[in-house]
Amino acid sequence: MRLATFEMGTRRRVGVVHPDDGTIRDVTDRLPAGTGVTELIEAWASYAPALAAVLDDSPALARDQVTLCAPIPEPRRNIFCVGKNYAEHAREFNDSGFDASASEARPDRPVFFTKATSSVTGPYSPVELHPSITGQVDYEVELVAIIGRGGRGIPRAEALRHVWGYTVINDVTARDLQRDHRQWFLGKSLDTHCPMGPYAVSADEVELDALEVAARVNGEPRQKASVRDLIFDIPDLIATLSAGITLRPGDLIATGTPAGVGIGFDPPRFLAHGDVVEVSVSGIGSLRNEFLEGLL
Ligand code: MG
């Protein structure tokens, strides 16, 4: 099933997306007040049958009748991310001079960091370049696992049973801040620097090994890779994180980006006012964001 968060009128609403034509069924008024996608995921077994039924018995909204938000617009805590998780990208980042964190190209343990939840924005929303504090904004397409069943000490072999489903982010990064402040949090967390969506897609609809991630800038292909090429796969990431951190429903784990980001070029190709970045994961969806100097 595909879940959407959207705005229509003044209220934020929750919907189920039709698998064939992409139309949306608004389920907000059938749910307890304040129920968002995270709450649906948390009690999925009790909600899923009724949500599946609405595809047949409620009016369809066309995509252009609504404004899509990130499916999980206010994650409950920092978004777990992993750096240098595709070998070719780890090499390009290491060679770029922007990696102040380590000297080795291929990490032997996952390199975790987080993005502030306040950086999340919609799948088609404009992204701010923040020209007064950075001149080096870059893109990173990433597959994101959404935790459905929480837990601590989750073994690798059981990890995928804790995944509710998947979504897509652009892990937008201010490279100069990432380098100059050593720790990556600041350079990864500026307002609007986490476009997410377009939907939260349940795991039963996803063949993980077949997924391909890709990014284009102004239509030009920049990144393309198979999720099979992850150095640390999703079970590795869940086992490592949950060894000492209790995972919770709705937690997001961004799995890293492949080669082809702006700092992989010589000279680097940073984003400029008016650039349009499209990031996609096959079978899950695409984000399309225009990058602007200001969002007035
Ligand atoms: Mg990243």
What profile does the largest beta sheet have? 11 strands, mixed
Rg, Å, rounded: 18 Å
- CATH architect. name of the largest domain: Alpha-Beta Complex
Low-pLDDT stretches are none
CATH level 1 name of the largest domain: Alpha Beta
How large is the count of helical segments? 6
Structural class: alpha+beta
Jot down its keywords.
5-stranded mixed β-sheet; 296 residues; 18 strands; single chain; binds magnesium ion; Fumarylacetoacetate hydrolase, domain 2; alpha+beta; 11-stranded mixed β-sheet
Description:
With 296 residues, the protein is an alpha+beta fold. It has two domains: 2-68; 79-292, Fumarylacetoacetase-like, C-terminal domain (Fumarylacetoacetate hydrolase, domain 2). It is 17% helix and 31% strand. The protein is built from six helices and 18 strands. The chain has helices at 37-42, 44-57, 87-96, 175-180, 185-188, 234-242; strands at 2-8, 11-17, 24-26, 67-68, 79-83, 111-115, 120-121, 127-128, 137-138, 141-147, 163-170, 173-174, 194-202, 212-217, 220-226, 252-254, 276-281, 285-292. The strands form three sheets. Strands 1, 2, 3, 4, 5, 6, 7, 10, 11, 13 and 16 form an eleven-stranded mixed β-sheet that branches. Strand 2 and strand 3 form a beta hairpin. The longest helix is centred in the first third of the chain and has 14 residues, at 44-57. The radius of gyration is 18 Å and the shape is globular. The relative contact order is 0.20. The mean pLDDT is 95. Bound molecules: magnesium ion (MG).
